[in-house]
Amino acid sequence: MERKIERKDWKRNAHDRLFARLEVPFYSVTRRIDVTGAVAFSKARGVSFYATMMWVTMRAVNGVEAFRYELRGEDVYLLDHRNPSYTYPWDDELFGICGIEWKDGESPIDFAARCREAEAHNASPIPTAESDAAGHDVYLSCVPWFDYMHIAQEFPLDNTDSTPRVMWGRFETDEKGRKTLSYTVQVNHRLIDGIHLKRLSEGLCGAIHALEAL
């Protein structure tokens, strides 16, 4: 489901026009987040930490309206939800890319099971142009081998590109047992401001906290 936005009624129209003057209106923010609850859930329930973090991320992303705006030429649409398109180990040093439909209200356990099934039936590590264009995605990836302070992600030189890109590193444990990791979000300033990143952060905390009740 999606809804076309009437620009004359869109309160963000002037801000969009401002950043539309730029060839590269994208920016990224990296911050450390506390994932102690996500690590504990993954270990207790036998779910991969990566799948748990994808579930947490998608729940938070879809909970912020600004992350569901999509530019198509001069038109703007509000999506009902975005879907995860994510990297995963394919063979030796190569990665694959897989995508599944996001289902509101689905448990992280069922979500992880659907990810495993989709990966098992993935015929090629890299999707075709047709399948890659099928979807209103969020691009997700991680570098589980090391922690980092900042990371820059690839993007096309198309200032209508509306796909949020999210990446995280290896979690580290402090002297109190708290587990944190670097978490990077790259977005288009035509659609998303700092206040929306704040709401995403709140959604991440809320989703991790919700794992305790599952």
Describe the structure.
The protein has 214 residues and is of the alpha+beta class. The protein has six helices and ten strands; from the N terminus they run E-H-E-H-H-E-E-E-E-H-H-E-E-E-E-H. The strands form two sheets. Strands 2, 5, 6, 7, 8, 9 and 10 form a seven-stranded mixed β-sheet that branches. The longest helix is centred in the last third of the chain and has 17 residues, at 194-210.
Considering the chains and any ligands shown, give keywords for the structure.
214 residues, Chloramphenicol Acetyltransferase, 7-stranded mixed sheet, globular
Write the SSE topology.
Blueprint lengths: L1 E4 L7 H8 L5 E9 L1 H10 L3 H14 L6 E4 L2 E5 L3 E9 L2 E6 L8 H13 L8 H4 L4 E7 L21 E5 L2 E2 L5 E10 L5 H17 L4
Parallel strand pairs: 5-7, 7-8
Antiparallel strand pairs: 1-4, 2-10, 3-4, 5-6, 8-10, 9-10
Helix pairs in contact: 2-3, 3-4, 3-6
How would you briefly describe this protein structure?
By secondary structure, the chain is an alpha+beta fold.
Give the terminus-to-terminus CA distance: 28 Å
Q: What's the main sheet like? A: 7 strands, mixed
- CATH domain fold name: Chloramphenicol Acetyltransferase
CATH superfamily: Chloramphenicol acetyltransferase-like domain
Domains (count): 1
